[in-house]
Specification:
The longest helix has 12 residues. A six-stranded mixed beta sheet has the order 2-1-3-5-6-4, with helices on both faces. It has a six-stranded parallel beta sheet with strand order 9-8-7-10-11-12, with helices on both faces. The chain is built from eleven helices and twelve strands. Helix 4 packs across helix 5 and helix 4 packs across helix 9. It starts with a strand and ends in a 6-residue tail after the last helix. It binds 2'-monophosphoadenosine-5'-diphosphate. 2'-monophosphoadenosine-5'-diphosphate binds next to helix 5.
Length: about 280
């Protein structure tokens, strides 16, 4: 039986087992996908269990996504650029790692707003952490001409922008409200607005009709940011889709079947998310 895992610390909250469990049942596969609590100091020992054949591969989540990278035998170019790995698997006796967050972000955006890249000239990104890095790399790869980063800690936004050319710039957090009106796509990559976190205070008064507003927060599913965008004629894109789509490449590698993000899968996850 093919056994897979998600390792994190803590890991009890992860919704990944629900996603992979759904696909295993849908495709009639006899494999498993298990939560394994692995503190940072025990990551190397856990990787030895994969090498010895106990597992085919799995996902890596907080706080292990960076620590796992130098311990693998092969790391994809994408994961290297992210400085973080979220998907690992055995291939030809070697342990491989990739990062599928940018893929997941883009696949969901493609699904929700087909052709978005043909009409997004300027993107405003709130935040400059790991999720922002995935989003900026994804947007830059798809040719977005101008990407503006704003972050509470300006140095982090400047550091991220410095990895790119003139098309990515860092601006002050206080400038965000004024930048809303020049943006065709706005993405919240911070934890603000998530249940239990402080609200995201972004003034959407200047939002243009049809501006895409994407929030990677998915608890609640419709955040105040998305509700505000909807009320002003913007196009809201929720964060759940990124979570679902980032899981596709891993499942395909471990189980040999490329799964789909279906309405039934979405409904199953939505039922598990508390309302706002
Ligand atoms: P992730 O991997 O989910 O992106 P992260 O790397 O810890 O997590 O980044 C969290 C992001 O949310 C950062 O941009 C962080 O801003 P700082 O770089 O200034 O820490 C942002 N963030 C978290 N809490 C915030 C708050 N209360 N106000 C503003 N930004 C916040």
């Amino acid at each position: 039986m093919t056994r897979c895992f998600i390792i994190g610390h803590p890991v009890a909250h992860s919704r990944s087992p629900m996603i992979h469990g759904h696909w295993l049942a849908e495709h009639g596969l006899g494999g498993s996908y298990e939560r394994v609590d692995v503190p940072p100091g025990e990551v190397a020992a856990f990787l030895d269990r994969i090498r010895s054949g106990e597992f085919a591969g799995g996902n890596v989540t907080v706080p292990n996504k960076e620590a796992v990278l130098p311990l693998l035998d092969h790391v994809s170019e994408t994961a290297r650029r992210m400085g973080a790995v979220n998907t690992i698997w055995m291939e030809d006796g070697r342990l491989h790692g990739d990062n599928t967050d940018a893929f997941g972000f883009l696949a969901h955006l493609d699904d929700r707003v087909p052709g978005w890249d043909g009409r997004v000239g300027t993107a405003l990104i709130l935040g400059a952490g790991g999720a922002a890095r995935a989003v900026v790399h994804g947007l830059a790869d798809r040719g977005v001409g101008r990407i503006i980063l704003v972050n509470r800690s300006p140095a982090r936004a400047q550091e991220l922008a410095a990895e790119f050319g003139a098309n990515v710039e860092a601006r002050g957090w206080g400038e965000a409200d004024g930048l809303v009106a020049v943006s065709d796509l706005i993405v919240n990559t911070t934890s603000l607005g998530m249940q239990g976190q402080p609200p995201l205070e972004l003034d959407l008064a200047g939002l243009r009709l049809g501006t895409i507003v994407d929030d990677i927060v998915y608890v609640p599913l419709e955040t105040a940011l998305l509700g505000g965008a909807r009320a002003r004629g913007g196009l809201p894109v929720d964060g759940l889709g990124m979570l679902l789509h980032q899981a596709i490449p891993g499942f395909e590698r471990w189980f040999g079947v490329r799964p789909q993000v279906t309405p039934a899968l979405r409904a199953r996850l939505e039922a598990d998310i508390p309302a706002a």
